[in-house]
Structures
1.
Amino acid sequence: MRPLPAMILISLLLPSLSTVLVPSSGARPVSLPEVHHPIIYRPASLSSPGSPPFVPSDIRKAYNFLPLYSRGIKGNGTRIAIIDAYGDSSLSTDLSSFNSLTGLPPVTLNTFYPDGPPKRTDSGWALETALDVEWAHSIAPSATIDLVVAFDSSLGHIFDGIAYVANSLPNERMLSMSFGLAELSYPTTGSFTIAATHQLFVTITSHGTTPFASSGDSGAATCCNPQYPASDPLVVAVGGTSLTLNSDASYGSETTWTGSGAGSSTIFTKPTWQQGLGDSMRDIVDVAYVGDPNTGVLVVRGGLEYQVGGTSAGSPQWAALIDLASQANGQTYGSINSKLYKLSSYHDITLGSDNFFTARPGWDYPTGLGTPDANAIVNALSPALPVSLSNSATFGGLVVTTTGNLLIFPTNGTLSGTCNVVTKNSTTGMVVFNKTFTIPNFKMKNNTGILQASFLLSIGVSPYPLSSNIGITEGAGAASSSVGVTRRLDANGDGIVDILDLARAANAFGTIINSPGYDGSVDVDGNGAVNIIDISIMASYFDATDFI
């Protein structure tokens, strides 16, 4: 057996200020040491699901990506930008090995060098590059990845990488940045200030691109010196967790990873979408993802397999997740934090600390809103299409008024909302029935791209219950509704219009009122005869749910 590599935690802080301010000096930037852990290797058979190092199939199941892939949501037609330094000379070969090992398809990868090809290599950044590209591809396997390689990790060249995305790559859906520098280490004057970089993010988000950044891998030692660009309010800051999976790779539990960087900005004031959380300034993190190297992910680099952790792992995967949402919902998001803070589709992390901040229910500093339920987040980010009901009809001496406010969610084909039915005596005006019906996540039928829903609102009046019969249609972003009033189409009252109701109508077919065999409950139009019209109306609502 060949020697196995050590497990590596990427800890990517930009170098100290004295180094980063002289990008043209040619001096090797000072980097943090790698943290080495016991040797862990994932065998090619992948015979132990749910055990680190996690492979794409583990993470996809744990964070509930599988329903998205089953619907063909894989990042088709989208682009994800990734910024790294120095590059990775073996990336193409390693990507092929990673894909072969994990069952992923090939990736379309473009590489850009804003300041020219780097003149030397850096093993830490090479592993970071492999992590970013392999795992963005793992989550959005059909997305094109545009890798922007900075000449080195100096602040000036990293700035140029961000500027290249802002000025030369306007069609990216997402941007992932697994690097950062403490806010207090940034210069306050000159070309590479936080203020100048923030203006690049203004441009980037104006294109519809959503930026993500890792929050740092050293935990927190103080309240108020978080890492930038994660602390920029236009950027989604990604923290880290320790993840435990069940033996079938289903989600088990999570706690805060001690290395999850967090804190309160000293530069940016509190965004409106963070009001009531943390203190009076912009606080990070926003969301979290598995980051603990002890529960790390598989990375192929230089022909070897590593178990890699860090918030570096979370940034490209969150970027890829929202890339899936962009494809599924047919829209770009730009600065998305205001939307993410309205969602509840997270695993709330309530245990653990980063040695300064402690997790708690709801938002907290080291894990933010939590880790994703991917399918629920993509669905929740769908632009819901409103459809209203407003109808008043007279039937058998009663005036039936139906109103409603419904939302269609085209991504998952569901309908939700409330409807109200008020029924009055047409002569006296007396209310004989008044009920509000809740329609919860009603599944619509997909008819070659056209979503359709039919349901009934049962009106309990004598001698025959009535129903307000609702039809909803959605296609190409437009919705329409119809409302009709009849005797209750669900003739036997079992909650659905089915063959039993049609059989009952067929049994009384051809009869008229006061004749043998006449059944008033299936004379749905109330004209005194059971005929083809009644059966046609019932058939048109076949399988419709009756809300009683």
2.
Amino acid sequence: MTDDFALRSTPLEAEHGALGAKLGPFAGWNMPIEYAGALAEHQAVRERVGLFDLTHLGKVEVAGPGALALLQGVVTNEVAAIEVGEAQYNLVLNEGGGVIEDLIVYRLEPGRYFVVPNASNTNRVLQILADAETPEQVHLMYHQDWCFLAVQGPRSPAIVEALFPEAVGLTFMRCAESDFRRRPVIVTRSGYTGEIGYELFTYEDIAVELWRTLVHALEPMGGAPCGLGARDILRLEMGYPLYGQDLFESSTAFEAGLSWAVRLDKGPFRGRDALIRQREDGLPSRLRGLRMHERRHIPRAHYPVFIDDRVVGEVTSGSFSPLLQTGIALAYLWPDDVATVGDEVIVDVRGRRGLATVVRPPFVDRSPR
């Protein structure tokens, strides 16, 4: 493998190896895929608490008098509505309304925001922000020397609040600044699992000490370190779309079912005109949830979806739900009204016809609030 294709390493790679993690490539990084197994780790998060290393995700600070105007013109949601200490889900679109990226915007101070894009798109998002015009000064900082840990599950408050008093009383999609060993830490009440949880951002020089402290705190609670395999099952059970798998530039924010994260009335932003046209013309496709009828039929990405003998869609994400004990999937169906919630469709599972019902995610009765 040449240097051009070398995987980046998290500062915790040796810690993961010592815990028996299976490491593998993900978005250009060598990341823990699983430790004790994805199903056991899924159960730990749903019932107790799990710890994730998510250092591969981007960590970008946008600060200065022009920060708000810059973000307003780049992302889809109403950034002006974010109060200090709050967070907001957002999309970055191309001029055709297609999804380039989904990300969280945190507001730390009146003129200081923290943006967390996906690993594979961090440089592209940075370039889009750098190229955007704003009449006032903006400072962009890519925190490549930061780590990102997530503590997720019903017992996560006991762990995080004991380490970070600022976390006490944080409600969903709120954030606060704290410290660990005299180093700054951004603590957020957010996550990608559907459970109560926290995300922690800090410098990599204290990553090992913080990781070990959290692992030690997990043990008496029956918690576990968790890999990306469990995280994918957890997010799919909640119906959370994954960029590059369920979100693409060829499908718009409306087709992805993310109109709730778009504010057309806030003023100009990338892709706004295309979304207005699509709202008037109708959607060519729509991302839907599918729940399989039989346990043996497990849907996977790219499996075709039928009504009778007519292809009406394609699975983008699919897996077996440990909570539901059946297969679940996200799939684009076309056109958008070809099937609605409650209708039945057929998924071709490697030549077998698997009956599924169109449902509205989340698939499971969970809430991160």
